[in-house]
Amino acid sequence: MKLWGGRFEKSTDELMEQFNASIGFDRRLYNADITGSVAYAKALAYAGLITEAERDTLIDGLAQVREEFAAGTFEIKAGDEDIHTAVERRLHEIVGDVAGKLHTGRSRNDQVATDVRLFLLDAIAEVNGHLRNLQAAIVAQAESHLDTLMPGYTHLQQAQPVLLSHWLMSYFWMLQRDRERLDGCAERTAVLPLGAGALAGNALGLDRARLAEELGFRDVTPNSIDTVSDRDFIAEFLFSASLIGVHISRLAEDLVLFSTDEFGFVQVDEAYATGSSLMPQKMNPDSLELARGKTGRLIGNLVGLLTTLKGLPSTYNKDLQEDKEPLFDSVDTLVITLPVVAGVVRTLRVNKTRMAHDLSDAILATDLADYLMRRGVPFRQAHGIIGRLVRKANASCIALSQLAVKDFQAEHAAFDSDVYEVFDFVRSVEAKDAVGGTAPAAVKTQIAEAQALLNAASDD
Amino acid sequence: MKLWGGRFEKSTDELMEQFNASIGFDRRLYNADITGSVAYAKALAYAGLITEAERDTLIDGLAQVREEFAAGTFEIKAGDEDIHTAVERRLHEIVGDVAGKLHTGRSRNDQVATDVRLFLLDAIAEVNGHLRNLQAAIVAQAESHLDTLMPGYTHLQQAQPVLLSHWLMSYFWMLQRDRERLDGCAERTAVLPLGAGALAGNALGLDRARLAEELGFRDVTPNSIDTVSDRDFIAEFLFSASLIGVHISRLAEDLVLFSTDEFGFVQVDEAYATGSSLMPQKMNPDSLELARGKTGRLIGNLVGLLTTLKGLPSTYNKDLQEDKEPLFDSVDTLVITLPVVAGVVRTLRVNKTRMAHDLSDAILATDLADYLMRRGVPFRQAHGIIGRLVRKANASCIALSQLAVKDFQAEHAAFDSDVYEVFDFVRSVEAKDAVGGTAPAAVKTQIAEAQALLNAASDD
Amino acid sequence: MKLWGGRFEKSTDELMEQFNASIGFDRRLYNADITGSVAYAKALAYAGLITEAERDTLIDGLAQVREEFAAGTFEIKAGDEDIHTAVERRLHEIVGDVAGKLHTGRSRNDQVATDVRLFLLDAIAEVNGHLRNLQAAIVAQAESHLDTLMPGYTHLQQAQPVLLSHWLMSYFWMLQRDRERLDGCAERTAVLPLGAGALAGNALGLDRARLAEELGFRDVTPNSIDTVSDRDFIAEFLFSASLIGVHISRLAEDLVLFSTDEFGFVQVDEAYATGSSLMPQKMNPDSLELARGKTGRLIGNLVGLLTTLKGLPSTYNKDLQEDKEPLFDSVDTLVITLPVVAGVVRTLRVNKTRMAHDLSDAILATDLADYLMRRGVPFRQAHGIIGRLVRKANASCIALSQLAVKDFQAEHAAFDSDVYEVFDFVRSVEAKDAVGGTAPAAVKTQIAEAQALLNAASDD
Amino acid sequence: MKLWGGRFEKSTDELMEQFNASIGFDRRLYNADITGSVAYAKALAYAGLITEAERDTLIDGLAQVREEFAAGTFEIKAGDEDIHTAVERRLHEIVGDVAGKLHTGRSRNDQVATDVRLFLLDAIAEVNGHLRNLQAAIVAQAESHLDTLMPGYTHLQQAQPVLLSHWLMSYFWMLQRDRERLDGCAERTAVLPLGAGALAGNALGLDRARLAEELGFRDVTPNSIDTVSDRDFIAEFLFSASLIGVHISRLAEDLVLFSTDEFGFVQVDEAYATGSSLMPQKMNPDSLELARGKTGRLIGNLVGLLTTLKGLPSTYNKDLQEDKEPLFDSVDTLVITLPVVAGVVRTLRVNKTRMAHDLSDAILATDLADYLMRRGVPFRQAHGIIGRLVRKANASCIALSQLAVKDFQAEHAAFDSDVYEVFDFVRSVEAKDAVGGTAPAAVKTQIAEAQALLNAASDD
C-alpha cells in the first residue's frame, strides 16, 4: 500500500523504491509512531472529526499493531515504504476503512518530526543515565584514591604531583557539562510538531496544546513551515554526542598510555581486554581503543547531518530523511560505549607503587620557585634561577635534591638549608588548596559536590 | 624576552619560533589579557603576596600597556611569542622587576583560558545582538506582508498557499533557537579558570570566588586539571555558529531561488548585489551566495577543533593553541554575515503580483480532500480521489477548477456544485488557524510573541 | 572459539564482547577472507611449512566454508568475534586440527588489511561501472539535445544562452575526473599487505611476491609497520566518494530547480518521483533530493575515518576496526545512488518550448558588448555602455531589442542598425566555438571525445 | 574602480563591499594573475583582436604592476574588490584605455580559475619539496640506526622487537604515498580554464591550446560550464593535505610518547622544544604537539570546502569565492609544519640503552610459538600453550626465560633445553627477512629503494 498513488500513472522503478524506502531503519520508531497516532486519534475525536467509537476502534487497532511489533510478529510487506505506511497499512487490515480517517489533516512531515522527537527524548534520558553511571564509577574510584600520588603532566611531560583522585575527577566534570548540554537539548526537543501538517498548519480546529500535554511535550512549535524541516534538535544531540566522544577519547588515551609497560600505572581488567591471534603474550586494552576510535563516527555523523542541511530550501525536502541513521548510530554508539567505559573504570587496577616511584624531584621545581618567591624574589626571577639549577643537576646526572646547599646558594643567596623541605610530594599536593586544586581537602570537597549532583540526578 | 629560558642551553630554531608563536593572532586578546592581569594583581595583594603599592604599580603599568594597544602604538618585538609574553615584557619595561611578581602562581595555561572565556563572552553578546537585529528585520518585513499570498513548497514543488509573513517568520524561530543555544553556551563559558595554575591548582591562598566576581564570572571551575584543557565552550560556540550558518544558508537559498528570473518573487536591493566583469546585464545576489557559502567555513572550524581535541592526553597540550583561529574566524564570519543578511532582508523588494499569479489550482488539492472528508469520506480515500482528478485535469491540460461538476462526481458522489468554493487561496490560508499555522490571525499571534521576545532581549 | 584465550584467566565481559565484535559487519568480507586464506595455504606449502596434503585439506575445507556463506547456511556462533575467527572456527570443525596451521606467521592485522583491499578493489570496479553507466545516460541525452537552447546561469541569474547538451556534458566531465581519481586509488590499493604479520614482518620464508601475483596485487607493501595500520586507501576512496557525492548533489540541485513549476524545464519521470500522504496533487523528485542529501553521509564517513586516524600511535590499534563501516556505507550509498540517478537522467522529459521561451534579450548583453568591441570600443568601455542600455530598457519596461537605434546611438556612435542582428540566440551559441565552448560543433567534438572514453572503458 | 557598474543605479552598501571583497586574501595571487594576463594579451593579438603594439603596451604595463607588487609598493585602493580588479585598475592608470581591451572575451570566472590553478601547481611543487626533505631526514636517521633495537607495539603494548630504522622508515612510505597523491592532483590541476568565459565559452577565435602551452598547462578543459565551477582540484589538494596531516600527527604522537620520562626513548632537541612560564623544569615537545594539532585545521579546511560545494547549482556561484582561504591556509600550514618536523627528526637524540633495556622477554612469545610450530605443533595450539606459559611466569613474577625447562615441558613435550636460544632479540629481528620485514637486510633494501626514489625526485 502507498499513501499517495492517486495521481500517478506509472509505478515506481524498483531500485527507486528501495532507494526511497526508510522502513529498513525507521521501523524502530514504531513505538513513538503509534504513541503519536493514539494521541492524534484522541485529538480528532475531541475536534469532532471522528466519533468516539471510531476513536476507540483506532486506538484498539493501534494497540494491536504495537503488540505485534513488540512481539516481533509484525510483518513488513512490499510497499511499506516507511514506518508510517506500515502502521497505517496494518491498521487498515485490522480495523478497515476507518483507518483512513487517522491521517486527516496530518502529514508524514509533522508525523515523523513528532516520532523522532519522542524517540530522542527517550534516548537522551537513556544516555544521561549511562553518563551518570560512568560518573558514579569515576567518583567511586576517586574516593578510594584520595592518598594516591601520581605525576601530573602537561605536554605529557611531568609537571607537578597531583592526586589520582583529582585526575579522575577531571573527567567527572567533563561529563557533567555533557549532561547539562543534553538537558538543554532535551528542552528544545520537547516541543510538539504535530499539527503543522505538510507545512501550512492545521485547518481542522485541532487543539495542539492539548496534544502536547497528552504526549508529554512542554510546548507546541510556533511556526508550521519551520516545524516540518527543523532538525536542529538532532544536530544539537549529534554535537553533544561528539563532545561526549571527545571526552571519552581523552580518558581512553590517558588510560591506554597509563597501561603501557612503560608507564605501568594501571591495568585494564581482563574482562575488558583482548588478545592477539598471533602473539600469545598480548593483553590489549581494546575496549579503550575502540571507545577512542568511535569518536570518529560520532563526529562524522554530526558533519553528515550539518552538510545535508546546508543550503536546503525551506520546508520539507526528502534530503531530511537522511537525519535518522546518524541519529540512531550516535545513540547506539553511546549506549554501548558508555557502560563499557564505566566497566573499565570500575574494575581498573591501580599500581600505586609504580606511580609513586615515577615521581622525580624535578616535578617540584615550581615549589622551589615558590620557596624563593616567599623569600622576596620576584617569581619571574625565581623561575630563571630554578631553571638553571635543573640544568645543573641534569648536567651532573643527579636529582635536584642532591644538589648541595652551596649549589643552591650559588644561584641565589636566599636559599637556606631548609630548601630540602621542599622535596616532599605530599606537601606539594597539600598546598594546592584553593577551590579546584589537588589538595586532598579540596578534592574531598569536589567529590562531595559531585555526589550531591549524582544524588540530585537520581531523584529525577 | 621569553618567560621560560632558564633550563635551556640552546636557542630555539628560527622557523620553530615562528611555528610556535601565537602573537600573530592572539594579540587581539590584549584587552582580556590585561583585564585578567589587573584582577590577578588585586588578588595577589589581597592574599598578601604583593604589597598594595606593588599592586598599584602593576595596575598603572597595565593601564599604560592597554592604552598603547588601543592606540595602536604597542610594538611587538622579537621573542614576544604570545600576548601574555608581550604584555609582561612591556610591563617590565615600564615598571621594572616588580612585573616579575605578576605571574606568581599563575600559568599561561589558566591565563589563556581566562582570556578566551572573557573574549567569548563579549563575542557571544555581539553575535546575539546581530541575531536580534536580523530577527527584527524579519519581523518588520513580516508585519508588512500579512496579506501577501505565496505558494508554499515542499520538495520545491507547490504544496499549499501560505502567507509570505509566515514564511518569513519561520526564520525568526530558527534564529531564536540559535540565541537560546548561545545563552546556554555563555552560561557554561562564564566560569573562571584563573587559579588552576599549570594544572594542579593554586598554592598561594588565592580567593578564586572573589576573582570570579571581580571579572564577572558566575562561578569558578571545580577541577584544575579539567580547567586547563577544557575547550568545550569553544566547541559549543563553534557548533552554535555552524547551526546559525545552516539557517542563514537556507534563507539565502530561498532568496536566491526567489530572485531568479523564473521565480521573480523578490529582488535583492542593488546595494547588496554585484555585477559581472564580462556580462553587462548581470545583477547577482552575491551577498546571499557568500552568506550561504560561508556555512562551509563555520562547519569546517567546528570539525577542525573537534578533531584537534580528539584523543588528546589529559591537561594542557600545545595542540590546544589551535583553538583560537577557528574561534576568531567564526566570530568574525558571523559578525559580518549577519548584518549583511539583515540588510538584504530589510531592503528586499517583494513582487506580490508575481507571487499571486504563480499560485495554481492544484495547490488546493488538499483543501478538496478536506471537502470530501467533511462529507464523510475517510481522508485516505479522499486523497486517492483527488489524486485522480488532478491527473484527469492534467491530461486535459486544464486547471482543476475547470473540471465540470460531473467530472468531480464521476469520482465520488459527495461532490456538489459548492466544490468551486474551495478554489479560493485566501480561504485556504485562513483555515489554517491552529497555533503555528499560516492563517493571518495565527501569524499575527506569532509576530506579537516574537516582538515580546525581541523587547525582552533589548532590556537585557 | 577465540583465537587468543591462553594467557587470560577471566572471561570477557558480556557487553565488552558485543562492543568488541565486528562480525556483525565484517562478515561481508567472507569471500575476500577465504580467497586470502587459500592463497596463504598455498604459500605455506610452497615454503615447506605445511605438506601439500595439508594444503589441499585446508583449501577444500575453505571451499566448503565459502559455499556455506554463499548459500546463506553459515551459522555465526557465540565467540565468532570477527570474520577471521568465524572462518577459522568453522574450518576447524570441518578439517580438524590442521586448521590450526593456517594462521602460522599470519596475524589478523595483515589478514584484515588484505581482506579490505581485496574488497575495495572489487568495489571500485563496481562503482566505476555505475559511473560509466551514468555518463552514458548523460551522453545519450546530450546527443538528442544538440539543438535545444536554454538559458545558461551564473549566480542562478540568466547569463548567456547555452545548449542543453553542453550543460548535460558538464556533468560527464566531473564524473570522468571521479573515475580518474578512483583509478589512482585502485592503484594504491592493489599492494599486498599479507606477510607483514602483526607488525614486524614474516619470519618463515614466505614468498610475498608470489602471494601478490596469486591474489592479483601489483606489488607488495614495503614496510610491515606501515602495512598493518595503513588505511590511506580507504580514506582516499571515501574522499573520492565524497566528491562523487558533491557532483551528484549539484546535478540533483539543478534538476530539482529545473523541475519546479516556476522553471518547468524538465520533468522527472513518475518512476523516480513519489507523492505526498497529505497533498493529492504532489509529484516530488524524491530520487534527486535523496541523492543530494546522501552527500552528507559520504562526507561524514570521510570525516569519521580521518578523525579516527588522527593522532593514533604507530602500527595497529583497535581504533582501526572503525574503518569498515564507513567504507561499506559509502560503497553501498554509491551503488544504489548512481543507478537511480542514471535512471532519472535516462528518463528525463525535457520541455524545449519552455526553455526557449524563457530566454530574454538581456542574456545577449555580452554579445552586444562584443559588437561594440569589434567596432573598436575597448571592451571595458563597451561593458559600461551596454550596462546603461540594460538599465534604460528596464526603466522603460521594454526588452533590450525594443530600444530604438537612436537609443543605442545615444550611448555610443558605433552602433548601427545592424545591431538588431545580435539578438539571435542561435547565433550567440554558435559563436562560442573555441574548444570547450557551447557551439554545436564544439559540443559534438566533446561528445565524440566522451564516447571514445566510454568505449575505451568498456574494453577494460 | 569596479569592473561592472554600468547597469547599477545605487552604490553598494559599505558593509556589503567589505563582505564581498576578496582582495584581502586573493592579492597573493597577483603573480599568477599577471602571468595569466600576459599570456591572454598574446592570445588576443594572435587572434587579431588587438594589435601587436597594444599587446606590447599591455605586457609592459603588466610587468610594471608585477614589479610594484614584488617591491611591496602596490597600493590597494578603495574599490579594488579583488586582485583582478586591482591589477586592471592599476594597468589602466599606467597604460590608459587600452587596458580596457585586456578583458575582451575573458570573465573573472575563467580568470580566477586560471590563477588558482597556477598558484596550486607552484604550491604542490613546494609541498612536494618539503615532503622530500622530511623523507630525507627520516632516511638519514634510519641509516644510522640499523642496529638499534626497540620494542615494536600494537595497541601500544609491547608486541615484537623491531629495528628503530624500520619504525622510522614506516613514515617514509606514508609520505611517499602522499607525494604520489599530490602528483595525481597536479596532473588534474594542470588543465587550462582560460577561454571558458563566464560559462559559455569563447566567441573570439582564441587558440586555447596555444594558451595552455604558453602557460605550462598540459591540456585545456573540455567544457566551459564545468570549467568555471570546477574546484575539484582544490578539494583534492585539501584532502591530500589532510592525509599528510594525519601522517604527521601519528609521527608526532609516537615521538611525544617516546620522549616522555616514562618511555625515555628519544629527546627532542632544545631548538624544537619550549618551556613553561610557571614550571622551571619543563622542556616540552611543542613542535610535535602543534604539528599534531594542526591536523585539525587541515581536515577542517577540507570539510569546509566540501560543504560549500555541496548542493550548489551549476556554473559559477559566489559561494566559490570561499575556496581560496582554506587552500591558502592548508598550503601555509604544510609549508611551515613539514620543515619543522624535518628539523625535529634530523636533530632527534635517540637513547639506545633505554630502548634496549625496555625490551621484555614476553615480547618473544611469538618466537616461542614458532619454536613449537617448527616442532610440528599446529600454530593455533602452540599459541595457547605459550599464552599459558606467559600467565604462569606472570603469576610467579618472573621473566619468561626464567621458567625452568620442566615448566615448559609441563605444557608440551616438544620443548627442549634449546628453548632458551629463542630469547635473543637480535635473532628475532633477523628472522623477519621477507620483503618489508624488520630484519636488517630487509630494512637495508628498503632504504636503498627509498634513496632511489629520493634521487629520482631530485632529478625532477
Would you spell out the secondary-structure blueprint of this structure?
Four copies of one chain form a homotetramer.
Chain A: H1 14-20, H2 23-26, H3 30-46, H4 52-71, H5 83-95, H6 108-143, E1 149-154, E2 157-163, H7 164-189, E3 191-192, H8 208-215, E4 219-220, H9 224-229, H10 232-258, E5 266-267, H11 286-293, H12 295-309, H13 324-346, E6 349-350, H14 352-358, H15 365-374, H16 379-395, H17 405-411, H18 425-431, H19 440-458
Parallel strand pairs in A: 3-4
Antiparallel strand pairs in A: 1-2, 5-6
DSSP E strands of chain A, number: 6
β content of chain A, as a range? under 5%
Secondary-structure element order of chain A, N to C: HHHHHHEEHEHEHHEHHHEHHHHHH
CATH C-level category of the largest domain in chain A: Mainly Alpha
Question: Quaternary status of these chains?
Answer: homotetramer
Helical percent range of chain A?
Answer: 55-70%
Report how far apart the termini of chain A are: 43 Å
How are strands sequenced across the largest beta sheet of chain A? Answer: 1-2
What gyration radius of chain A follows from the Cα positions, in whole Å?
Answer: 30 Å
Gross morphology of chain A:
elongated
Mean pLDDT across every amino acid position of chain A: 96
Can you give a write-up of this model?
The structure is a homotetramer of 460-residue chains. Chain A is mainly alpha-helical. Chain A has three domains: 91 residues, Fumarase/aspartase (N-terminal domain) (Fumarase C, Chain B, domain 1, Orthogonal Bundle), CATH 1.10.275; 249 residues, Fumarase C, Chain A, domain 2; 99 residues, Fumarase/aspartase (C-terminal domain) (Ribonucleotide Reductase Protein R1, domain 1), CATH 1.10.40.30. Helices cover 60% and strands 5% of the residues of chain A. Chain A is built from 19 helices and six strands. Chain A has a two-stranded antiparallel sheet. In chain A, helix 4 packs across helix 5 and helix 6 runs antiparallel to helix 19. Chain A is elongated. The two termini of chain A are 43 Å apart. The model of chain A has no long low-confidence stretch (mean pLDDT 96). Chains C and D meet through strand 1, strand 2, helix 7, helix 9 and helix 10 of C and strand 1, strand 2, helix 7, helix 9 and helix 10 of D.
